[in-house]
Write a sequence for this structure.
């Protein structure tokens, strides 16, 4: 009994850490740009496939493959902003149009993955699950421990970046009030670009870790994105602490929920939780500012 | 052979027409960005398949498919009525995922990932629509009924209230219109026809499984609605015909079948992006999304 609870706790922690990886970058882009960048999930999927391409197909050194993957996703995000979103913003389109464009990008990237890599499941296979260590009857692999630690470090790094660096401060200014930020000489377009570049680089780190932990499938991005975004909303969008709380809450609810329901309903549990939050507390647990309509 | 192929295409166009027209009602006329439309399609398909397989006549099951989907539409509208823009789209997308995972996991009812094979071809009062040509006639009749009802609805005083709610909800409320109710009814109506389309799809293909109802299936109809233009049924009809036919040449220039599926999605996605960039109102659209 205790070992089951411990195992579920560990599973919650791992799931939560993965959602943190997704939610943080997503939340960063959302809070600066104020629309849902659905293609973020596809960015992660593309990253994971690029890692597979660099490491398994080209046979590059793993560290080099990781660096190339992160660079790839960062530029992918940057380019999506440059080619699509910036042009749309120039015409002052509503956030709904931006959102539909991002759905288009999501489908485009996912379909391109199928075209280039096929619909089958891929495995990077750097680590073996047999390496798992046992703690009081519950198992965890070294990679999973690393994912948990890394997600905490990433949270801390992003927190410091947002609070202390010049770009981070400018991001908060643009997200608060674009007009005033521009009056004091911050170029909003530049900040949008930066948010996509950095947010997508974080997606790159997520894709490396998730790609090592799970199998790759072309549609992995949609699922991750919805969960990452659910975590961001539940915690309070635009807040790093919120993303943290939301991600781990999701991990806990999802993993302990399967005590009561068959494990196939894992995803449904998450979406119902998201639903409840959207309806009763759309600003999330930590959110204070209600979105202006 | 070539004739059978054309009839097959025409039936698909008919089913897409019903689906796209119903999404147009919610998105174009009521301004509700509903990314969960495929869920209603799935509800209709599963309802009718399960009913006819247990002996319910088709004439009844197609109605029940619509009514069941309508019920889901109403249920979705109640909690999401107050949500706007991106929050609404996310909630409806989440709804799509909930329906998908229920269909996938309620194995005792839906047979889960194995799907439902051997769905009977429809027959109404002893007349069987078993050949593709007969099925085409049935589809055509239902498309015409759908079009007739939807245009009547939009040109009625209630249709004006729907559009007023989209353009300025506050003003519509100030004139004493119950906008929450208007949105609920519109979404329920839209879901009804999506359910009917789902029923037709299931009885045409005669096999359904959960993977027929993912977000991927949303892209063509979303594309159709945006390209045809919001709040224009005529635009939707033209866009449906063009977009269903557009990827067909891929079949003839020697792409393998495993590539055709994703290539279709690539084409749709690229067209969608180009339209949003250069012609955001679509071709016959009257309004732009807010």
């Amino acid at each position: 009994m205790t070992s089951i609870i411990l195992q579920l706790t560990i599973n919650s922690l791992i799931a939560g850490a993965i959602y943190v990886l997704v939610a943080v970058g997503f939340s960063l882009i959302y809070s600066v740009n104020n629309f849902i960048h659905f293609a973020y999930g596809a960015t992660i999927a593309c990253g994971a496939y690029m890692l597979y391409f660099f490491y398994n197909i080209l046979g590059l050194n793993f560290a080099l493959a990781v660096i190339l993957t992160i660079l790839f996703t960062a530029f992918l995000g940057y380019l999506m902003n440059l080619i699509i979103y910036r042009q749309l913003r120039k015409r002052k389109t509503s956030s709904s149009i931006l959102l539909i464009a991002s759905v288009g990008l999501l489908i485009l990237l996912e379909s391109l993955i199928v075209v280039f890599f096929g619909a089958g499941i891929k495995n990077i296979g750097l680590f073996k699950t047999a390496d798992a260590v046992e703690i009081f009857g519950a198992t965890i692999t070294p990679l999973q421990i690393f994912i948990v630690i890394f997600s905490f470090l990433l949270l801390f790094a992003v927190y410091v970046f947002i609070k202390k660096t010049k770009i981070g401060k400018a991001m908060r200014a643009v997200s608060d009030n674009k007009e005033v930020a521009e009056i004091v000489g911050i170029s909003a377009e530049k900040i949008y670009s930066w948010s996509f570049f950095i947010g997508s680089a974080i997606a790159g780190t997520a894709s490396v870790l998730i790609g090592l932990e799970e199998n790759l499938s072309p549609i992995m991005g949609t699922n991750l994105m919805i969960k990452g975004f659910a975590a961001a909303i539940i915690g309070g969008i635009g807040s790093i602490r919120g993303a943290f709380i939301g991600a781990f809450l999701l991990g806990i609810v999802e993993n302990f929920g399967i005590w009561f329901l068959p494990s196939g309903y894992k995803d449904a549990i998450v979406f119902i939780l998201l639903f409840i939050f959207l309806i009763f507390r759309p600003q999330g647990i930590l959110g204070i500012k209600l979105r202006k309509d | 052979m070539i004739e059978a192929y054309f009839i097959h295409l025409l039936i698909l166009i008919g089913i897409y027409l019903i689906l796209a027209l119903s999404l147009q009602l919610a998105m174009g006329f009521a301004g509700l960005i509903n990314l969960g439309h495929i869920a209603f399609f799935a509800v209709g398909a599963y309802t009718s398949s399960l009913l006819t397989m247990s002996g319910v006549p088709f004439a009844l099951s197609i109605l029940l498919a619509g009514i069941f989907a309508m019920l889901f539409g109403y249920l979705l509208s109640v909690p999401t009525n107050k949500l706007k823009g991106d929050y609404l789209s996310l909630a409806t997308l989440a709804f799509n995922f909930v329906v998908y995972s229920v269909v996938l996991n309620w194995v005792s009812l839906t047979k889960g990932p194995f799907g439902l094979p051997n769905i009977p071809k429809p027959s109404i009062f002893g007349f069987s629509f078993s050949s593709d040509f007969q099925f085409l006639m049935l589809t055509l009749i239902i498309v015409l009924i759908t079009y007739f009802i939807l245009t009547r609805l939009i040109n009625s005083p209630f249709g004006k209230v729907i559009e007023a709610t989209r353009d300025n909800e506050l003003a519509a409320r100030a004139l004493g219109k119950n906008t929450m109710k208007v949105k609920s009814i519109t979404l329920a109506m839209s879901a009804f026809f999506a359910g009917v389309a789902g029923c037709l799809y299931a009885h045409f293909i005669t096999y359904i499984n959960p993977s027929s109802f993912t977000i991927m299936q949303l892209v063509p109809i979303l594309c159709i609605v945006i390209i045809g233009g919001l709040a224009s049924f005529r635009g939707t009809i033209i866009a449906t015909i063009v977009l269903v036919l557009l990827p067909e040449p891929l079949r003839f220039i020697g792409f393998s079948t495993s590539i055709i599926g994703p290539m279709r999605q690539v084409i749709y996605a690229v067209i969608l992006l180009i339209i949003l960039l250069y012609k955001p109102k679509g071709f016959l659209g009257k309004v732009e999304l807010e």
